[in-house]
Amino acid sequence: MKVAVLGSGSRGNAVLVADEKTRILVDVGLSAKQAARRLDTLGIGPDSIAAIVVTHDHGDHTRGVGVYSRRFGTPVYITRPTREACARLFRGGEPIRHYGAGCPFAIGTLRVEPFTTAHDAVDPVALAVTGTRSGMRIGIATDLGRPTAGVRHSLSGCDFLVLEANHDEQMLRDGPYPPSVQARIASSHGHLSNYAAADFARELLHPDLVGIFLAHLSQECNQPGLACRVVREGLAEVGWSGFLQVAGQDEPTPMVDIVELRRARGQRQLSLSSPVGSEADQP
Known about the structure:
By secondary structure, this protein is an alpha/beta fold. It is 31% helix and 22% strand. The longest helix has 16 residues, at 258-273. It is built from ten helices and 14 strands. It has helices at 32-41, 59-62, 65-72, 80-85, 149-155, 169-174, 179-186, 194-204, 224-236, 258-273, and strands at residues 2-7, 14-18, 23-26, 51-53, 76-78, 96-98, 105-107, 110-116, 125-131, 137-141, 160-164, 211-215, 243-246, 256-257. It is globular and about 50 Å long.
């Protein structure tokens, strides 16, 4: 199983999940042209994507969905309320597949589990995607006002997470947004702060969690280094030191291979447990 974030933030979001047989995009909030260019950067043909799964109707998650689907013939998986809310994106010729929260479905060799989240959209969901061949599980949860019990349950046991760390609380208070927008962002139907993301990641921690992409950072009310530090320090307190990287807005992340991460993690643990002066300690 592999994962990459093509871009994440208020100007567009898209996540690539793939195994040996199937590739899907979770949201296309970038333009179709930009999404295709960033896939090319990763060595992925835009016409090789088996499906687009839309999580909710906000433009930073849907902007390029219709054009991408028409250009490459890519099926769009979407809830009925979300489709109605962003009907202007579609012209009637796109291959549409409706799904509902709590009803898993298969796309090729990937199993997609959608679950309801707390966010101020019409019918928002987050996803867990499992490779049916490997059993590895990737959780994708951005635009997450608060981690409900259902969200915690649905994201438990993930090998890798794409998790929102939207804002620093002090930067939000001191930032350019009017009080009404600040209240929306900080509300239980808004976005997770860095500290809330750290707390949530700690709740989801288990021995097989090997990596996290921090996503949907606010350009005005956060900084990549700050988000990474807060989450890393929070996880270090409970002994976790896996892969952690911020997903940026303007360029894709590298394609992360979860098997390789697990292998590297095992090698590091072996090195740490080796006796002083052993070969594993040599430069």
